[in-house]
């Protein structure tokens, strides 16, 4: 899952999408400041002064990119209580971010820096979690690159927060304003953090962590954009792809069968006759057009399974269209609304077949697994 605020419609863009894309994922030196566009403002989050770049000015909220990569939506008094510092935007360096995390989480936690992550974990937990996050990220980059998806290095270190047990995790989610129940972890798009816990069987939690880590990799490495509205089946389909353990193991000996998400396939067999039923093509059409199946608790689990099937088929059988779909959804305008008509139109253009034909191809593919 991805937790995040929903931005209201009716907007005015402060900086252009291409400048913003550079801010969120830099091709070159990640510490380089950006001289184009507006300058840095000072603003307050929980009475703490922070600095960042305003990126969207909605009627009810001002969206700001913090120097550490967090996105804040300032509302009410917080929206007014800002000051232009007339300085260019410069991302925080990893040491600054690390120091800030240490004071945020306190002495019971350590911050472990890896090549791509800052992992916040209870003191003395060793390398198990940092290794899992690094491995997940590397396999994500490999899988995407092999399919021609253009990966671009992110500007900010990815922050992963490991709480000591499930109740501490829920308390941390509440502090971050995230509503979730019965989860082993979450990726939150605004704070750009994964939050999970170390209080259960790692095997059980690990599938969720691989799913959430894939969201984080996707949003930080230019597969999705954190400021673009992306259809849920696209983002969750990617998350589902990375749940199987084989996805983070050595590529040698890895077969298509190893990459199958068994939970999703089981659900498809139970509820959609393995993709052969009319309900399956209807679900495919619904997911392409709207996020309703995800939002309705009765159909959420089905939505994840069908989204997996669609994404797995594209990634394994039509990688060019897979890459085109991801580039297309990623390249839309900042917070630009995306209606049913446009979603269906774009899909048929990027994937090169109508929805019913596509659903049939996915069904045949599922049968072959
Ligand atoms: Zn997800």
UniProtKB/TrEMBL annotation:
It comes from the Bacteria. Pfam families: DUF1570. Residues 206-328 form the DUF1570 domain. InterPro entries: DUF1570 (IPR011464). This is DUF1570 domain-containing protein.
């Amino acid at each position: 899952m991805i937790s995040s605020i929903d931005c209201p419609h009716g907007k005015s863009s402060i900086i252009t999408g291409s400048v913003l894309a550079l801010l969120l994922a830099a091709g070159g030196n990640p510490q380089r400041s950006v001289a184009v566009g507006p300058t840095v403002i000072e603003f307050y989050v929980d009475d703490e002064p922070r600095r960042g770049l305003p990126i969207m000015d909605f009627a009810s909220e001002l969206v700001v990119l913090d120097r550490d990569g967090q996105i804040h939506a300032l509302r009410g008094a917080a929206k007014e209580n800002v000051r232009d510092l007339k300085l260019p935007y410069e991302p925080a360096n990893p040491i600054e971010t690390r120091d800030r995390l240490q004071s945020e989480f306190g002495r019971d936690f350590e911050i472990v820096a890896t090549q791509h992550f800052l992992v916040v974990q209870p003191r003395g937990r060793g390398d198990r979690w940092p290794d899992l996050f690094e491995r997940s990220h590397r396999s994500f980059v490999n899988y995407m690159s092999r399919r021609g998806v253009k990966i671009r290095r992110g500007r900010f270190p990815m922050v992963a927060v490991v709480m000591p047990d499930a109740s501490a995790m829920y308390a941390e989610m509440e502090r971050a304003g995230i509503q979730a129940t019965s989860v082993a972890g979450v990726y939150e798009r605004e704070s750009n953090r994964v939050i999970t816990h170390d209080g259960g069987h790692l095997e059980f939690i690990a599938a969720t962590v691989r799913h959430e880590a894939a969201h984080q990799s996707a949003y930080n490495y230019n597969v999705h954009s954190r400021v673009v509205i992306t259809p849920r089946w696209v983002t969750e389909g990617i998350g589902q792809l990375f749940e199987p353990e084989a996805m983070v193991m050595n590529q040698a000996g890895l077969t298509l069968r190893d990459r199958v998400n068994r939970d999703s396939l089981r659900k498809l067999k139970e509820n959609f006759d393995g993709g052969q039923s009319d309900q399956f093509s209807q679900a495919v059409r619904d997911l392409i057009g709207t996020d309703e199946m995800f939002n309705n608790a009765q159909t959420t689990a089905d939505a994840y399974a069908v989204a997996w099937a669609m994404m797995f088929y594209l990634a394994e059988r039509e990688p060019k269209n897979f890459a085109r779909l991801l580039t297309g959804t990623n390249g839309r305008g900042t917070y630009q609304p995306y209606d049913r008509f446009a979603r269906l139109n774009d899909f048929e253009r990027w994937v090169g077949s109508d929805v019913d034909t596509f659903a049939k191809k996915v069904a045949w593919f599922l049968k072959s697994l």
